[in-house]
Amino acid sequence: xxxxxxxxxxxxxxxxxxxxxxxxxxxxxxxxxxxxxxxxxxxxxxxxxxxxxxxxxxxxxxxxxxxxxxxxxxxxxxxxxxxxxxxxxxxxxxxxxxxxxxxxxxxxxxxxxxxxxxxxxxxxxxxxxxxxxxxxxxxxxxxxxxxxxxxxxxxxxxxxxxxxxxxxxxxxxxxxxxxxxxxxxxxxxxxxxxxxxxxxxxxxxxxxxxxxxxxxxxxxxxxxxxxxxxxxxxxxxxxxxxxxxxxxxxxxxxxxxxxxxxxxxxxxxxxxxxxxxxxxxxxxxxxxxxxxxxxxxxxxxxxxxxxxxxxxxxxxxxxxxxxxxxxxxxxxxxxxxxxxxxxxxxxxxxxxxxxxxxxxxxxxxxxxxxxxxxxxxxxxxxxxxxxxxxxxxxxxxxxxxxxxxxxxxxxxxxxxxxxxxxxxxxxxxxxxxxxxxxxxxxxxxxxxxxxxxxxxxxxxx
Length: 461
Description:
Layout: H1 7-14, H2 18-25, H3 29-36, E1 43-47, E2 50-53, E3 58-61, H4 64-67, H5 76-87, H6 100-110, E4 118-122, H7 125-140, E5 144-148, H8 157-160, H9 166-169, E6 178-181, H10 186-193, E7 198-203, H11 218-228, E8 232-236, E9 261-264, E10 276-280, H12 282-288, H13 306-321, H14 324-340, E11 349-355, E12 358-363, H15 369-381, H16 385-396, E13 400-401, E14 403-404, E15 411-414, H17 422-440, H18 445-459
Parallel strand pairs: 3-13, 5-6, 5-7, 7-8, 8-9
Antiparallel strand pairs: 1-2, 2-3, 4-10, 9-10, 11-12, 12-15, 14-15
Helix pairs in contact: 2-3, 5-13, 6-13, 7-12, 10-11, 14-17, 15-18, 16-18
Protein backbone atom coordinates (compact mmCIF):
# COMPACT_ATOMS: atom_id res chain seq x y z
CA UNK A 1 0.00 0.00 0.00
CA UNK A 2 1.48 3.33 -1.06
CA UNK A 3 2.03 6.05 1.51
CA UNK A 4 0.28 9.40 1.21
CA UNK A 5 2.58 12.16 0.03
CA UNK A 6 3.99 14.16 2.95
CA UNK A 7 6.16 17.09 1.88
CA UNK A 8 7.30 18.02 5.38
CA UNK A 9 8.47 14.48 6.09
CA UNK A 10 10.21 14.22 2.71
CA UNK A 11 12.19 17.41 3.37
CA UNK A 12 12.98 16.31 6.92
CA UNK A 13 14.22 12.92 5.73
CA UNK A 14 16.17 13.97 2.66
CA UNK A 15 16.73 17.73 2.79
CA UNK A 16 20.32 17.22 3.90
CA UNK A 17 21.04 15.57 0.54
CA UNK A 18 20.30 18.75 -1.45
CA UNK A 19 23.79 19.26 -2.89
CA UNK A 20 24.37 15.58 -3.63
CA UNK A 21 20.99 15.29 -5.38
CA UNK A 22 21.73 18.34 -7.52
CA UNK A 23 25.17 17.05 -8.46
CA UNK A 24 23.75 13.68 -9.46
CA UNK A 25 20.57 14.63 -11.30
CA UNK A 26 20.68 18.34 -12.28
CA UNK A 27 23.38 20.79 -13.38
CA UNK A 28 26.45 19.15 -11.86
CA UNK A 29 28.55 22.29 -12.26
CA UNK A 30 26.37 24.40 -9.94
CA UNK A 31 27.20 22.63 -6.65
CA UNK A 32 30.83 22.42 -7.76
CA UNK A 33 30.95 26.18 -8.34
CA UNK A 34 29.15 26.96 -5.07
CA UNK A 35 31.58 24.78 -3.14
CA UNK A 36 34.61 26.41 -4.80
CA UNK A 37 33.64 29.93 -3.69
CA UNK A 38 32.17 28.91 -0.34
CA UNK A 39 28.58 29.63 -1.29
CA UNK A 40 27.36 26.11 -0.48
CA UNK A 41 25.23 27.24 2.45
CA UNK A 42 22.17 25.49 3.82
CA UNK A 43 19.36 28.01 4.07
CA UNK A 44 16.44 26.74 6.09
CA UNK A 45 14.04 29.68 6.15
CA UNK A 46 13.40 33.04 4.48
CA UNK A 47 11.21 36.06 5.05
CA UNK A 48 11.28 39.54 3.59
CA UNK A 49 14.86 40.50 2.73
CA UNK A 50 16.48 37.83 4.91
CA UNK A 51 17.47 34.15 4.94
CA UNK A 52 18.33 32.05 7.99
CA UNK A 53 20.74 29.14 7.93
CA UNK A 54 20.58 25.90 9.92
CA UNK A 55 22.33 27.59 12.86
CA UNK A 56 19.87 30.49 12.99
CA UNK A 57 22.21 33.09 11.47
CA UNK A 58 20.51 35.73 9.35
CA UNK A 59 21.68 36.72 5.83
CA UNK A 60 20.74 39.92 4.04
CA UNK A 61 19.52 39.29 0.50
CA UNK A 62 20.79 41.92 -1.95
CA UNK A 63 20.04 39.70 -4.95
CA UNK A 64 16.28 39.01 -4.67
CA UNK A 65 16.56 35.76 -6.59
CA UNK A 66 17.90 37.64 -9.66
CA UNK A 67 15.06 40.13 -9.20
CA UNK A 68 12.01 37.89 -8.83
CA UNK A 69 11.55 38.62 -5.11
CA UNK A 70 10.59 42.26 -5.51
CA UNK A 71 8.49 42.20 -2.34
CA UNK A 72 10.89 39.95 -0.51
CA UNK A 73 10.05 36.37 0.37
CA UNK A 74 6.67 35.19 1.62
CA UNK A 75 4.78 38.47 1.57
CA UNK A 76 1.58 37.73 3.53
CA UNK A 77 -0.78 39.37 1.02
CA UNK A 78 0.59 37.39 -1.93
CA UNK A 79 0.70 34.23 0.12
CA UNK A 80 -2.94 34.65 1.15
CA UNK A 81 -3.99 35.30 -2.45
CA UNK A 82 -2.44 31.98 -3.50
CA UNK A 83 -4.15 30.13 -0.66
CA UNK A 84 -7.44 31.78 -1.61
CA UNK A 85 -7.20 30.91 -5.29
CA UNK A 86 -6.38 27.28 -4.51
CA UNK A 87 -9.25 27.08 -2.02
CA UNK A 88 -11.63 28.55 -4.62
CA UNK A 89 -11.36 25.39 -6.78
CA UNK A 90 -11.66 27.46 -9.97
CA UNK A 91 -12.22 25.81 -13.34
CA UNK A 92 -8.72 26.84 -14.40
CA UNK A 93 -7.12 26.25 -17.82
CA UNK A 94 -10.17 24.74 -19.52
CA UNK A 95 -8.89 26.57 -22.63
CA UNK A 96 -12.44 26.95 -23.92
CA UNK A 97 -13.74 29.66 -21.63
CA UNK A 98 -12.67 33.11 -20.42
CA UNK A 99 -11.78 33.31 -16.73
CA UNK A 100 -11.90 36.71 -14.96
CA UNK A 101 -8.42 36.86 -13.41
CA UNK A 102 -6.36 37.27 -16.62
CA UNK A 103 -8.50 40.18 -17.77
CA UNK A 104 -8.36 41.80 -14.35
CA UNK A 105 -4.55 41.53 -14.17
CA UNK A 106 -4.19 42.84 -17.73
CA UNK A 107 -6.41 45.80 -16.82
CA UNK A 108 -4.25 46.62 -13.79
CA UNK A 109 -0.98 46.29 -15.71
CA UNK A 110 -2.17 48.43 -18.61
CA UNK A 111 -3.20 51.19 -16.20
CA UNK A 112 0.53 51.80 -15.70
CA UNK A 113 1.13 51.99 -19.48
CA UNK A 114 -1.91 53.86 -20.80
CA UNK A 115 -0.55 53.98 -24.35
CA UNK A 116 -0.70 50.17 -24.55
CA UNK A 117 -3.87 48.15 -25.03
CA UNK A 118 -3.46 44.38 -24.72
CA UNK A 119 -1.48 41.72 -22.85
CA UNK A 120 -0.27 38.20 -23.57
CA UNK A 121 0.57 36.12 -20.48
CA UNK A 122 3.29 33.49 -20.57
CA UNK A 123 5.44 31.91 -17.91
CA UNK A 124 8.79 33.72 -17.80
CA UNK A 125 10.79 36.70 -18.96
CA UNK A 126 12.29 34.81 -21.86
CA UNK A 127 8.76 33.82 -23.00
CA UNK A 128 7.73 37.47 -22.81
CA UNK A 129 10.68 38.34 -25.04
CA UNK A 130 9.92 35.48 -27.44
CA UNK A 131 6.37 36.80 -27.74
CA UNK A 132 7.59 40.31 -28.48
CA UNK A 133 10.01 39.06 -31.14
CA UNK A 134 7.30 37.00 -32.86
CA UNK A 135 4.75 39.80 -32.71
CA UNK A 136 7.20 42.40 -34.00
CA UNK A 137 8.25 40.23 -36.95
CA UNK A 138 4.68 39.34 -37.87
CA UNK A 139 3.27 42.85 -37.45
CA UNK A 140 5.97 44.46 -39.59
CA UNK A 141 6.55 41.60 -42.02
CA UNK A 142 10.29 41.93 -41.48
CA UNK A 143 12.75 39.33 -40.19
CA UNK A 144 15.47 41.16 -38.32
CA UNK A 145 15.46 42.41 -34.71
CA UNK A 146 18.23 44.67 -33.46
CA UNK A 147 19.64 44.55 -29.95
CA UNK A 148 22.32 46.40 -28.01
CA UNK A 149 25.80 45.13 -27.28
CA UNK A 150 26.09 43.35 -23.91
CA UNK A 151 22.31 42.92 -23.71
CA UNK A 152 20.64 40.05 -21.90
CA UNK A 153 17.12 39.08 -22.98
CA UNK A 154 16.95 35.37 -22.15
CA UNK A 155 18.41 32.02 -23.17
CA UNK A 156 15.82 30.30 -25.38
CA UNK A 157 16.56 30.29 -29.09
CA UNK A 158 14.72 33.47 -30.02
CA UNK A 159 15.80 35.49 -27.00
CA UNK A 160 19.33 34.11 -27.35
CA UNK A 161 19.39 35.63 -30.84
CA UNK A 162 19.23 39.08 -29.23
CA UNK A 163 21.68 38.28 -26.45
CA UNK A 164 24.81 40.39 -26.51
CA UNK A 165 27.05 37.92 -24.68
CA UNK A 166 28.99 35.56 -26.94
CA UNK A 167 29.53 33.10 -24.08
CA UNK A 168 25.81 32.36 -24.08
CA UNK A 169 25.50 32.22 -27.89
CA UNK A 170 28.54 30.13 -28.79
CA UNK A 171 27.67 26.65 -30.02
CA UNK A 172 23.95 27.32 -30.45
CA UNK A 173 23.94 28.81 -33.95
CA UNK A 174 22.25 29.30 -36.31
CA UNK A 175 19.95 31.73 -34.53
CA UNK A 176 17.42 34.28 -35.80
CA UNK A 177 18.63 37.07 -38.11
CA UNK A 178 19.79 39.95 -35.96
CA UNK A 179 22.39 42.67 -35.51
CA UNK A 180 23.93 44.19 -32.40
CA UNK A 181 24.25 47.97 -32.18
CA UNK A 182 26.19 49.74 -29.43
CA UNK A 183 23.98 51.00 -26.61
CA UNK A 184 23.32 54.69 -27.22
CA UNK A 185 24.69 54.78 -30.79
CA UNK A 186 21.98 56.38 -32.92
CA UNK A 187 24.15 56.44 -36.05
CA UNK A 188 24.58 52.66 -35.90
CA UNK A 189 20.83 52.26 -35.40
CA UNK A 190 20.11 54.57 -38.35
CA UNK A 191 22.47 52.61 -40.60
CA UNK A 192 20.75 49.30 -39.83
CA UNK A 193 17.26 50.74 -40.26
CA UNK A 194 18.21 52.05 -43.69
CA UNK A 195 18.52 48.44 -44.91
CA UNK A 196 14.74 48.12 -44.72
CA UNK A 197 14.51 44.67 -43.12
CA UNK A 198 14.34 45.61 -39.42
CA UNK A 199 11.25 44.66 -37.43
CA UNK A 200 12.34 46.41 -34.26
CA UNK A 201 14.91 47.19 -31.61
CA UNK A 202 14.77 45.44 -28.23
CA UNK A 203 16.44 47.32 -25.41
CA UNK A 204 16.83 47.21 -21.63
CA UNK A 205 16.45 50.77 -20.28
CA UNK A 206 19.19 49.77 -17.83
CA UNK A 207 21.21 46.75 -18.85
CA UNK A 208 21.34 43.95 -16.31
CA UNK A 209 24.88 43.07 -17.33
CA UNK A 210 27.12 45.79 -15.93
CA UNK A 211 24.20 48.06 -14.93
CA UNK A 212 24.65 50.47 -17.84
CA UNK A 213 21.75 52.85 -18.45
CA UNK A 214 20.76 54.49 -21.69
CA UNK A 215 21.93 58.07 -22.10
CA UNK A 216 19.29 60.81 -21.60
CA UNK A 217 17.29 61.24 -24.79
CA UNK A 218 18.41 57.98 -26.40
CA UNK A 219 15.20 56.01 -26.03
CA UNK A 220 13.05 58.81 -27.39
CA UNK A 221 15.39 59.45 -30.33
CA UNK A 222 15.59 55.72 -31.06
CA UNK A 223 11.79 55.51 -30.95
CA UNK A 224 11.49 58.30 -33.49
CA UNK A 225 14.03 56.67 -35.82
CA UNK A 226 12.30 53.30 -35.55
CA UNK A 227 8.88 54.73 -36.31
CA UNK A 228 10.23 56.69 -39.27
CA UNK A 229 11.32 53.34 -40.70
CA UNK A 230 8.09 51.55 -39.66
CA UNK A 231 9.92 49.47 -37.06
CA UNK A 232 8.99 48.90 -33.41
CA UNK A 233 10.55 49.79 -30.07
CA UNK A 234 10.51 46.84 -27.65
CA UNK A 235 11.28 47.62 -24.01
CA UNK A 236 12.58 44.66 -22.01
CA UNK A 237 11.44 45.52 -18.48
CA UNK A 238 11.79 41.98 -17.15
CA UNK A 239 14.35 43.08 -14.57
CA UNK A 240 13.92 46.87 -14.56
CA UNK A 241 10.12 46.98 -14.42
CA UNK A 242 7.63 46.90 -11.54
CA UNK A 243 9.34 49.61 -9.51
CA UNK A 244 12.93 48.35 -9.58
CA UNK A 245 14.41 51.66 -10.79
CA UNK A 246 12.13 54.03 -8.88
CA UNK A 247 9.54 54.30 -11.65
CA UNK A 248 6.93 51.66 -12.37
CA UNK A 249 8.73 51.01 -15.66
CA UNK A 250 12.29 52.18 -16.26
CA UNK A 251 11.43 53.64 -19.69
CA UNK A 252 9.11 56.11 -17.92
CA UNK A 253 12.15 57.93 -16.56
CA UNK A 254 12.41 59.58 -19.98
CA UNK A 255 9.50 61.74 -21.08
CA UNK A 256 7.80 60.90 -24.35
CA UNK A 257 8.95 57.27 -24.58
CA UNK A 258 6.07 54.95 -25.48
CA UNK A 259 7.34 51.51 -26.54
CA UNK A 260 5.24 49.47 -28.93
CA UNK A 261 5.82 46.30 -26.90
CA UNK A 262 6.86 45.92 -23.25
CA UNK A 263 8.12 42.69 -21.63
CA UNK A 264 7.42 42.08 -17.94
CA UNK A 265 8.12 39.12 -15.63
CA UNK A 266 10.34 38.34 -12.60
CA UNK A 267 8.71 40.30 -9.72
CA UNK A 268 5.17 40.11 -11.15
CA UNK A 269 4.16 37.10 -9.04
CA UNK A 270 6.11 37.97 -5.91
CA UNK A 271 8.49 35.11 -6.63
CA UNK A 272 5.90 32.40 -6.08
CA UNK A 273 4.69 31.38 -9.54
CA UNK A 274 6.41 31.56 -12.95
CA UNK A 275 4.78 34.32 -14.98
CA UNK A 276 5.59 36.65 -17.85
CA UNK A 277 3.64 39.29 -19.73
CA UNK A 278 4.00 41.04 -23.07
CA UNK A 279 2.11 44.32 -23.30
CA UNK A 280 1.45 45.80 -26.72
CA UNK A 281 -0.54 48.11 -28.92
CA UNK A 282 -3.94 47.10 -30.19
CA UNK A 283 -2.98 47.08 -33.88
CA UNK A 284 -0.10 44.64 -33.25
CA UNK A 285 -2.32 42.14 -31.43
CA UNK A 286 -5.07 42.48 -34.04
CA UNK A 287 -2.60 41.78 -36.80
CA UNK A 288 -1.28 38.64 -35.07
CA UNK A 289 -4.75 37.41 -34.08
CA UNK A 290 -6.35 38.54 -37.33
CA UNK A 291 -9.10 35.92 -37.55
CA UNK A 292 -10.76 33.12 -35.60
CA UNK A 293 -8.56 30.68 -37.53
CA UNK A 294 -5.55 32.31 -35.84
CA UNK A 295 -6.93 32.34 -32.30
CA UNK A 296 -4.23 29.93 -31.09
CA UNK A 297 -1.40 31.10 -33.36
CA UNK A 298 0.51 32.10 -30.23
CA UNK A 299 -0.34 30.54 -26.88
CA UNK A 300 1.19 28.92 -23.80
CA UNK A 301 -0.07 25.82 -22.00
CA UNK A 302 0.22 27.38 -18.54
CA UNK A 303 -0.28 30.98 -19.66
CA UNK A 304 -2.87 32.96 -17.66
CA UNK A 305 -3.17 30.23 -15.01
CA UNK A 306 -5.14 31.24 -11.94
CA UNK A 307 -2.26 31.04 -9.48
CA UNK A 308 -0.04 33.36 -11.52
CA UNK A 309 -2.88 35.80 -12.16
CA UNK A 310 -3.92 35.94 -8.50
CA UNK A 311 -0.32 36.44 -7.42
CA UNK A 312 0.12 39.24 -9.97
CA UNK A 313 -3.01 41.03 -8.78
CA UNK A 314 -1.85 40.73 -5.17
CA UNK A 315 1.61 42.08 -6.04
CA UNK A 316 0.20 45.14 -7.80
CA UNK A 317 -2.11 45.76 -4.84
CA UNK A 318 0.80 45.60 -2.39
CA UNK A 319 2.91 47.87 -4.58
CA UNK A 320 0.20 50.51 -4.48
CA UNK A 321 -0.84 50.16 -0.84
CA UNK A 322 2.70 50.00 0.55
CA UNK A 323 4.16 52.62 -1.85
CA UNK A 324 6.83 50.20 -3.01
CA UNK A 325 7.94 52.26 -6.03
CA UNK A 326 8.53 55.34 -3.89
CA UNK A 327 10.48 53.26 -1.38
CA UNK A 328 12.68 51.88 -4.14
CA UNK A 329 13.39 55.40 -5.34
CA UNK A 330 14.16 56.88 -1.90
CA UNK A 331 16.09 53.92 -0.51
CA UNK A 332 17.97 53.52 -3.78
CA UNK A 333 19.06 57.16 -3.69
CA UNK A 334 20.27 56.71 -0.11
CA UNK A 335 22.23 53.54 -0.92
CA UNK A 336 23.76 55.00 -4.06
CA UNK A 337 24.81 58.23 -2.33
CA UNK A 338 26.40 56.34 0.56
CA UNK A 339 28.36 54.15 -1.85
CA UNK A 340 29.32 57.03 -4.15
CA UNK A 341 30.88 58.78 -1.15
CA UNK A 342 33.37 55.90 -0.91
CA UNK A 343 34.76 56.26 -4.45
CA UNK A 344 37.35 58.88 -3.52
CA UNK A 345 38.32 56.87 -0.44
CA UNK A 346 39.22 53.60 -2.16
CA UNK A 347 41.42 53.47 -5.27
CA UNK A 348 40.10 50.03 -6.25
CA UNK A 349 36.56 51.44 -6.41
CA UNK A 350 36.03 53.24 -9.73
CA UNK A 351 32.28 53.87 -10.14
CA UNK A 352 28.83 53.56 -8.57
CA UNK A 353 25.90 53.81 -10.96
CA UNK A 354 22.29 52.85 -11.48
CA UNK A 355 18.85 54.05 -10.52
CA UNK A 356 16.46 53.12 -7.76
CA UNK A 357 17.36 49.73 -6.28
CA UNK A 358 19.37 48.59 -9.29
CA UNK A 359 22.94 49.63 -8.55
CA UNK A 360 26.27 48.67 -10.07
CA UNK A 361 29.56 48.93 -8.15
CA UNK A 362 32.56 48.84 -10.49
CA UNK A 363 36.16 48.20 -9.55
CA UNK A 364 39.18 49.40 -11.52
CA UNK A 365 42.96 49.42 -11.77
CA UNK A 366 44.51 51.02 -8.67
CA UNK A 367 47.29 53.61 -8.72
CA UNK A 368 49.58 52.38 -5.95
CA UNK A 369 52.30 49.96 -7.04
CA UNK A 370 51.55 47.25 -4.47
CA UNK A 371 47.84 47.05 -5.27
CA UNK A 372 48.46 47.46 -9.00
CA UNK A 373 50.70 44.38 -9.12
CA UNK A 374 48.03 42.29 -7.37
CA UNK A 375 45.33 43.65 -9.66
CA UNK A 376 47.45 42.80 -12.73
CA UNK A 377 47.89 39.25 -11.45
CA UNK A 378 44.12 38.81 -11.17
CA UNK A 379 43.40 40.35 -14.58
CA UNK A 380 46.00 38.13 -16.25
CA UNK A 381 44.28 35.04 -14.87
CA UNK A 382 40.70 36.09 -15.58
CA UNK A 383 38.87 39.38 -15.64
CA UNK A 384 36.19 39.55 -12.99
CA UNK A 385 38.12 37.83 -10.21
CA UNK A 386 38.41 40.92 -8.02
CA UNK A 387 34.63 41.41 -8.00
CA UNK A 388 34.33 37.76 -6.98
CA UNK A 389 36.85 38.43 -4.21
CA UNK A 390 34.49 41.09 -2.87
CA UNK A 391 31.31 39.03 -3.20
CA UNK A 392 32.73 36.09 -1.24
CA UNK A 393 33.68 37.90 2.00
CA UNK A 394 30.41 39.83 1.88
CA UNK A 395 28.71 36.46 2.26
CA UNK A 396 31.29 34.61 4.38
CA UNK A 397 32.13 37.36 6.87
CA UNK A 398 29.11 39.63 6.76
CA UNK A 399 26.30 37.28 5.68
CA UNK A 400 25.20 39.41 2.71
CA UNK A 401 24.32 37.78 -0.62
CA UNK A 402 25.34 39.68 -3.78
CA UNK A 403 26.44 38.77 -7.31
CA UNK A 404 29.02 39.66 -9.93
CA UNK A 405 27.16 41.41 -12.73
CA UNK A 406 28.16 39.21 -15.64
CA UNK A 407 31.05 37.12 -16.80
CA UNK A 408 34.43 38.86 -17.08
CA UNK A 409 33.11 42.02 -15.40
CA UNK A 410 34.57 43.77 -12.38
CA UNK A 411 31.11 44.90 -11.33
CA UNK A 412 28.85 43.88 -8.46
CA UNK A 413 25.12 44.32 -9.03
CA UNK A 414 22.71 45.10 -6.20
CA UNK A 415 19.06 44.26 -6.87
CA UNK A 416 17.62 43.73 -3.38
CA UNK A 417 13.94 43.34 -2.53
CA UNK A 418 12.21 46.68 -3.01
CA UNK A 419 11.07 46.67 0.60
CA UNK A 420 14.49 47.26 2.18
CA UNK A 421 15.07 50.41 4.21
CA UNK A 422 17.72 52.37 6.04
CA UNK A 423 18.63 49.45 8.33
CA UNK A 424 19.60 47.28 5.36
CA UNK A 425 21.45 50.16 3.70
CA UNK A 426 23.49 50.67 6.89
CA UNK A 427 24.31 46.98 7.13
CA UNK A 428 25.45 46.73 3.52
CA UNK A 429 27.53 49.92 3.50
CA UNK A 430 29.26 48.98 6.77
CA UNK A 431 30.08 45.51 5.44
CA UNK A 432 31.22 46.79 2.05
CA UNK A 433 33.45 49.37 3.77
CA UNK A 434 35.06 46.62 5.87
CA UNK A 435 35.70 44.52 2.75
CA UNK A 436 37.25 47.50 0.97
CA UNK A 437 39.45 48.22 3.99
CA UNK A 438 40.65 44.61 3.88
CA UNK A 439 41.28 44.76 0.12
CA UNK A 440 43.33 47.94 0.42
CA UNK A 441 45.46 46.55 3.25
CA UNK A 442 47.18 44.48 0.55
CA UNK A 443 47.17 41.22 2.47
CA UNK A 444 45.06 38.95 4.59
CA UNK A 445 42.48 36.29 3.83
CA UNK A 446 40.89 38.24 0.98
CA UNK A 447 44.00 38.23 -1.17
CA UNK A 448 44.77 34.65 -0.15
CA UNK A 449 41.37 33.73 -1.55
CA UNK A 450 42.26 35.72 -4.67
CA UNK A 451 45.23 33.42 -5.20
CA UNK A 452 42.89 30.44 -4.96
CA UNK A 453 40.64 31.98 -7.62
CA UNK A 454 43.66 32.60 -9.85
CA UNK A 455 44.70 28.93 -9.60
CA UNK A 456 41.15 27.84 -10.38
CA UNK A 457 40.92 30.20 -13.39
CA UNK A 458 44.23 28.98 -14.80
CA UNK A 459 43.24 25.33 -14.30
CA UNK A 460 39.99 25.90 -16.22
CA UNK A 461 41.67 27.34 -19.31
